[in-house]
# Entry
Amino acid sequence: MQVVKTVDELKNAMFRIRPTGKTVGLVPTMGALHEGHLSLIKRARKENQITVCSIFVNPTQFNNQDDLAKYPRTLDDDLKLIEPYVDFAFAPTPEDVYKVPATEHYDFGTLERVMEGPMRPGHFNGVAIIVKRLFDWVQPDRAYFGEKDFQQIAIIKDLVRQYKLPITIVPCPIVREDSGLALSSRNKRLSEDERKRAANIYKILKASTQLETTKVADIQKFVADEIAHNPGFKLEYYEIVDGETLQILSDLNDSDSVVGCITVYVGEVRLIDNIRYK
Ligand code: PAF
# Structure
């Protein structure tokens, strides 16, 4: 594995790879890597001849400076973890990535007007800025993203469509602890007790798929009531949406692809998860 620290070094490395005709898989991350990230990296390695993993806590996608400051940074451990699977680890500084100022403005229409969009103004523009820059620098054949960030995948697929990029977006299933808690770098910020109880989020989502009703309002009420029974939990939203358009549904029968997306504060930590109804 070669550790690449600057954008110029990355562009030079990819410039040397391209004439070989080898396929390139990119796994963009913000570090604090766990088994969930490793599942993306292993898949990228299986499906491509060269694997690139970026590790960069991207300031432009944080609308809360406290959240940015507290985001876990564990570069040395991250590099050790990915070393057996990755050809290039790209770990730049914010100064280098944003030597060219972040003035890009993206428009994802209705995709960004629901769920995380209104809750985190500017978040998806920041994600699009870094992902588009990484795509331009690496020019991968495939790029891998975890389905925990369900809305992010829809936005990135739209980015690829809008700019007609020859890149296949590969969504990868959520990896969970045995308890059911979705793996997330933010879990590191939970106390032991909070981490145990955070597993209730997935239990509640699973139970909601077993209800007799198809009415979204009833399912939302069930989820909200169950979350409220957990001290220290605060539900931000639970929306049931079309799996492609992210349009908010009022009945499960309104689409063939239906996903429930939740955001819950457990103590001070904001966790997201989702579950498929069909
Ligand atoms: O999902 C993430 O970790 C980030 O949003 C991403 C895609 C690496 C962009 O910074």
Q: What stands out?
A: The chain has a mean pLDDT of 97.
